[in-house]
Amino acid sequence: MVEEIDPSKLEIADELIAERRGTAPGKLPDDMPRWMAATITRIDLMSLWIGRAVCWMLVPLCVSMVYEVIARKYFLAPTMWAYDISRMFYGALFMLGAGYALSRGVHIRADFLYRNWSVRVQGTVDSTLYLVFYFPGLLVFMWTSIDYAWVAIDRGERGMDTAWMPYMGPIKSVLPVGALLLLIQGISETLKSLYAARRGRWPV
What we know:
By secondary structure, this protein is mostly helical. Helix content is 63%, strand content 0%. It has one domain. It has helices at 34-54, 58-74, 82-96, 98-104, 119-155, 169-199. Mean pLDDT is 88; it is low at 12-16.
């Protein structure tokens, strides 16, 4: 069972962190419309399982770094691939896990004013910002990154800043996928915000 975090007990340093959510997906109010609850639950569960799968990228990331340090320090045999592998896995971890991070409320944002507003105002501001800025911005980013990734794949682009020169198509393809996952999770967050604006309380 995940313990809920009381926002009033957060440290001053946590003022820039969005409200963390301790509840599991699916625990929604009874007065929420069924279609809304079903949509939120399905999206949040999808983000949860993607987040759990993506976190396994930490294993090859850590292994490659440990191998590089040992090989370089004790055997004087630095690798050509460890640096590229580490930054690719880190980038993929960041992009593919962004939707899950949004669902858990752990993205960095300035909450020093937001926390003092009523829930209705918070919900109204959040839903407005999602519709006016979040979705249009991410749609433009996804469209641009699709072209960015396709050009890399079509041309067989390779990284030119290291001796290993890995193909860049696979890692660049993570950008539109990550944007898509953020867009999908944004639907769930917008519905939660609309509920908060109407009911005066957050659903999770």
